[in-house]
Amino acid sequence: MEFKNPKYIPCRIVISWPLWNTYREKLERIVMRYPLIFRGFKVGSIHYDEKIGVLGSNEERIDVFGCK
Question: How far apart (Å, rounded) are the C-alpha atoms in residues 60 and 68?
């Protein structure tokens, strides 16, 4: 079996904000290794919160089903 076409498979990779805010420069280094997937990304282009990690709030939220 040979893989000849297509030259690449279109994809979309989404990195959520909690991951960016947790892994920061480590994640930037990974993204820079794959310019074909993360086109146009530049080191230092993301402005992080002061605190590292997943940020939460003390708010209680209730969804449309009434669940807390």
Answer: 7
Place of tokens 């807390």: 68
SS3 1: coil
Per-residue pLDDT of 18-68, as tens digits, reads 899 999 999 999 999 999 889 899 998 988 878 887 767 778 888 888 888
Check: CB of residue 25 under 8 Å from CB of residue 52.
Answer: no
What are the start-end ranges of the E strands in the chain? none
Backbone torsions φ then ψ of 35, nearest 5 degrees? -65, -25
Phi-psi domain of 37 (left: phi exceeds 0; alpha: psi -120 through 50; beta: other): alpha
- Which stretches of the chain are DSSP H helices? 17-32
